[in-house]
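I am writing to request your help with a piece of structural work I have in hand. What I wish to show you is a protein chain and, alongside it, a tokenised description of its three-dimensional fold. Could you please explain, in whatever detail you think fit, how the structure tokens follow from the sequence? You will find the record immediately after this paragraph.
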Amino acid sequence: PIAAGATVTLRDANINGNDAFTFSGFAGLTPEGDATIVLEGSNIVKSFNQFYPGIYAKSGYTLTITGTGSLSASCVDYYPLSAGIGAGYEMACGNIVIQGGSITATGGDDSAGIGGARNGNCGDITITGGTIIATGGDSGAGIGSGAPYEEWDESRCGNITISGGNVMAIGGYEAAGIGAGAYGAVCGD
């Protein structure tokens, strides 16, 4: 966990949940409140569980990512159901702000690269800088919401604002590159 209010520097870090070969565990990184991650060097962050994202932005708080380094963030390889950065399966996540860095974020099934997950809602997403490649899993947006699994489930995200940086977002099946996932997911107020 990252303490609330903390600024943490990742410098050539390799947090690889796949190495644990277990389905217990959590996200690769979880801020306990508002927090900032500064990227230096080359970094990899994967969750330790298919139900958790690589980096979890807890509901009600803001995760800020900045710096000049690179980051690859994703859920574990085995039956992933969570975002690369954002929400986990059936979990709500808070706001995500990206100010810098070279970021590659990959979502699992029905999950966004950056944002919501299967049946997992997300707050606002703001990008002001950096180079971002975000790829949604099956039916998940590249940046935005995941997709609901059943018709009565919900997957939504808040407002998405991009005012700088270089962004490439690739959605999964019937999902937007930037915006809503498939099957009735929504984005924005």
Notes: The chain has no helices and 19 strands.
